[in-house]
Amino acid sequence: VCRLSSVSTRAIERDLAALEDKVMTLGQEADRLCSIHSDHGDQIRGKHAEIMATWEMLKAKAQERRRRLDESYLLHRFLADFRDLVSWIHDMKAIISADELAKDVAGAEALLERHQEHKGEIDARERTRLTDYQLD
Fold it and tell me: What percentage of the chain's residues is helix, strand, coil (to nearest 5)?
């Protein structure tokens, strides 16, 4: 849903960029018409002001939509990362909680090596998560 909304929003933003030139041209045309038809100048300026107010409102709505879409994307990304992290934590807890004991020196060294690998993975994930979601 977020991807479709993002594609749709980008299309709207492209359309607005293309229309902005037309709106500015319309403003120049309004100025030209006011100079030619001074008796209708107030009416022309009023219509132009109405167009500009509507245009600004439309641009503000597009910006608000972009802001909300970006926030929604960040929320979904955070929740997906949260689910992945919780799953990983459960897996690590199961690995760490295993009551496996070494029967000889080679087995103890292998367990110690696995422990160091798991600790390295935990430390790496912790650094990654802390940099991904720094709170301001």
Answer: 90, 0, 10
Domain total of the chain: 1
Please check whether residue 39 lies inside any domain of the structure.
yes
State the Rg of the chain over Cα: 30
Q: Is 121 within a domain?
A: no
CA 58 to chain centre: 21
Which pair of tokens denotes residue 122? 């935990």
Rounded Cα–Cα distance for residues 29 and 20 (Å): 14
Query: pLDDT tens, 112-122?
Result: 898 899 889 88
Contact 42, 70 (CB under 8 A): no
Determine the structural domain holding residue 57 and report its residue range. 2-78
What's the pLDDT tens digit per position in 6-60? 778 888 888 898 899 999 999 999 999 999 999 999 999 999 999 999 999 999 9
- Under a CB-based contact definition with an 8 Å cutoff, are residues 69 and 9 in contact? yes
User: What value does the mean pLDDT of the chain take?
Assistant: 88
Under the banding of pLDDT at 50, 70 and 90, the label for residue 134 is low
Report how far residue 53's alpha carbon sits from residue 56's, in angstroms, rounded to the nearest whole number. Answer: 5
AA identity, residue 69: L
